[in-house]
Amino acid sequence: MRRIAIVYFDAGGGHRSAAQALFDAIQLQNCPWSVKLLNLDEILQPVDPAHRLTGRNGSGWYNWWLRSGWTVGSPLLISGTHAWIRLLNPAQIRLLRSCWRQERPDLVLSVVPHFNRQLFQSLRYEAPGVPFVTLLTDLADYPPHFWIEPQDQHFICATERAVQQARVRGGLKATVWRVSGMVLNPRFYRQRLRDRSAGLRRLGFDPSRLTAVVLFGGHGSRTMLSVARYAMSSNVQLIFLCGHNARLAGRLRALHFPFPAHVEGFTYNVSDFMQLGDFFIGKTGPGSTSEALQMSLPVIVESSPRTLAHERYNAEWIRERQLGIVLRDFRELPTALEYLADPEVLLRMRKRTQALNNRAVFEVLDILDQILRARKPPPVFATGSCQLESSR
Question: Higher confidence at residue 52 or residue 379?
Answer without folding.
Answer: 52
